[in-house]
Amino acid sequence: MRGNRARSRRQAGAAALVGAAALVVTGLPGQALAASPAPGPGEVVPGTGTATPALVDGIREGVTAAGSAADAARGHLAGKRDRYRIADPGRDLKPLRTTSAGSSETVRLQQKHRGIDVLGGQYVVRMEKKDGKRVVTGTSGKYFTALKADTKADVSEETAVERAVDATLAQLGRDDGFGGGDEGSPSLTGTARGLVIVPKGAGVLAHHVTVRGTDRAGGQPVLREVYVDAKAGYPVLQYSGIRTFGAPAAASGGAAQAPRAKAAADAPGVRGSGVTYDGTTVELQLTQDDGSKEYLMRDQSRMRGSSKNVLSTWDARGKDVSETSGRWPEGIKEFGSKGPQFSQEFTEAGAVDAHWAAGKVYDYYKQAHGRDSLDGRGMTINSLVGVTYFGMPYVNAFWDGTKMVYGSGDKEYRTLSAGLDVVGHEMTHGVVENTANLVYAGQSGAMNEAVADYFGNAIKTDAYGTSMDSPDSGLLGERLCRTKTPRECAIRDLNDGRTTSKSFLGVSFATDNGGVHLNSTIFSGALWDIRKDVDRALADRIVYKALTEYMTPLDGFTEGRNAVIAAAKALKVPAKDRNAVTRAFNAHGIVPNWEQAMGVDSDQLLGRLNTSNTTVGAGGGWWAASKSDDSGGEAYSVWAGKVAGGGAQKLISPNDGRYHVNPATDGKTVVWEAYGPGNVELLSRPLAGGPVKKLWSNRRGMRGLKVEGKVVVWAESPRASVGLQVMYLRPGDAEPTPVGHRSTRDATSLQSISGGRIAYAQRTYHARPTRGYTYSVEVLDTATGKTTVVQAPGRHSVGQTGVTGKHVFWLVDEVDDQGQRGVRRANLDGTGTVDVSKEQGADALHAVTLTASDEAVTVTAATPDTQYRNETLSKLWQLSADGTRSGRVSCNRGEQAAAAAAGGRQVVWIDGTTGYTDLVTRGRPAGNCG
């Protein structure tokens, strides 16, 4: 059940790659451009794609501006225009927050472009204040000086919300490719958050839309931050807003309103006790309720000075995870006991560990760093413990922007609050959000996870007296298991030795938000090495100072390195220890230009696509793909070239401000979608040249475009709640012809075309005798109108089809397993059915989609694994048409997606290994990658 849901999400993710660095040539999540070496005293580090320096260090410059710290900071920037190149700091930098520690002041400023916030545009000014006078000691961050974007939207908020929801549905998989329907259809709503400038190139004016709800097919809550181009209506960026401990479930965030706790004066605090999972009796700070006289897990002892600042642990057993993300579930109460000693029931519920651990984490930040709660201003800390997943165990934990939520655990894993490092990790996400606010996608998201892992593990090792020299000191989550050894149980290991050159994985934002867990231990491993090589308390101070005073939302690994080194200098760390800091980053490959060391075994056809949510096409010896400019800020255009390489590449689409995406070609014609502020148009153009023709248009776009000769086929849906319908269009047709039988709840999808035959999957709703759906595979001969059923209707779902001149291939899912799918083949008349790849057995594939030629079928397979390792990412496997031969197409590390058969055994695909999105191919399959 869980495997199938995970597979559905992966199916959408594999359809369109957004490489972990593809968006970041001007600094977006997953920074991939080189930065200068770490600065020396008084040195200025240039910014990437901006005239404003990324970091200024080692200065002491007086500030004459009077007033607030923010006024002084902006006055400094204005007075040094030759250095900072910020024309009008008073107009274009809005104060976000000022934090003080002793004589130090750190001012964070939000960049504005013509009055509109710039995503991730944040600049930091560090000062010292003494005797009423201020001295600037350094600056850092991203201020984008190349922005020229118009600020008038051509796309309405209504259209932007609709397209944001559609984009989220597509990335979730939409019920295994059929979309919509009243069963399994995601229930999502979008909220317009206003205009924002996405800092790519000259800037992209975008509607920021937050999409929330429940993915009923995937069984998870949803929160997506989606940015829709306000000129053309195309979603240029989306990522999940939830911060999980383990591998990400499609999840959520948002404002949750907890009931107000009683003031301390009304409910005096008392000391109680409980036993943690490991058998230790611990002290608990409680409150006795005036009415029930129960002792509640409500700690007011640590949060003095404001009646609202309490630490509460809530009983969320029986609540589904979807009820707890971004909302406050109805009817829950703080854990309570008749006496101050909490019994074994509360141990097994995870409540004792959660309440005790939250206090330990709060104490750590207060005592070690002088920080008052997660936001630095005494915010309430709420922990919800014991949530489930459709009544089944939920083995994960997350921070949703306002509170911590811990899963119930299962037969092997205890409630997730049983790990002090897990609690520290999730609470640190709250600290990160209220300081550097590292965007939870790509490299910045991996750094967000890395910092959460570092502090969570630091708190645990100190609490348990673990030696930093222990090989197990870097294990996270190792105390969660009931029977497994710590190393078998651990979710991650900060001592895993991963490096950028050997371990970095370029993946789509649909996969782990661009690698936030996959790549995190590269950075956290460097931080952990620092803690092993210098005094642990000093290491914590260095990392905390880098996070709170140097880092900004779109920092990548190299900026993170520079921030930590600069923080060490500012703390006057001895040279020996500063060398250890630099050595740790070098050992993990976090050095200038590290991105250039990524090797591949494929041939590049079109490099650095810098695109999002678009597929590629191939046929007749040609490929077709969408591409932006080097900055990623230009609306996408369709290009075409020869699969064999050589010859000039051709610009197929107009460069008219619309987004030209999802092209298909048969070697003679290219067809594609053009997203504009109104409708989405289906366009075509001959490869030999000629005018662009409009074939069709609709509001919501097309799915799975294919072309053969003069026939174009796709699937579309009139609205989000209705399933997809396959359509085809021939020359002279005024309107497209629908394929398959259709009623309100039926759907057709997953189409392919060859030899004038359209293969597709049919979903049919039945009210009697048993309510539910059946799935079949059918072939329509467009010349005769005859339909042949090649897979009889059944209750088990089917997947992508691929029709050739000889056979029909499709994915089959007949066993409720861990997401494996078989590959089935039949003759065009429905006879000769055989499985060329079995659904079960050692060689079974976790198949996501397929593409076929007469000689071979190429399957994209991605294992639904909670750890997200390289071997579980989307990879291409090729099977001979008779199933006697199988092997990998490429051994490239990272995600391989959007494969299109180019004839024979050759395919083209989008590859994320380099950290960019590249269109690549191989002359022959790689075979065994072991």
Look at the helices and sheets and give the structural class. alpha+beta
Strand percent estimate: 25-35%
Distance between the termini: 30 Å
Q: How would you sum up the global shape?
A: globular
What does this structure look like?
With 930 residues, the protein is an alpha+beta fold. Helices cover 19% and strands 33% of the residues. It has 17 helices and 51 strands. Strands 11, 15, 16, 17, 19, 20 and 21 form a 7-stranded mixed beta sheet that branches. It has a 6-stranded antiparallel beta sheet with strand order 1-2-6-5-4-3. Strands 7-8-9-10 form a 4-stranded antiparallel beta sheet. Helix 14 (520-533) packs across helix 15 and helix 14 (520-533) packs antiparallel against helix 17 (575-587). The longest helix has 23 residues, at 442-464. It starts with a helix and ends in a 9-residue tail after the last strand. Residues 436-590 form the Peptidase M4 C-terminal domain.
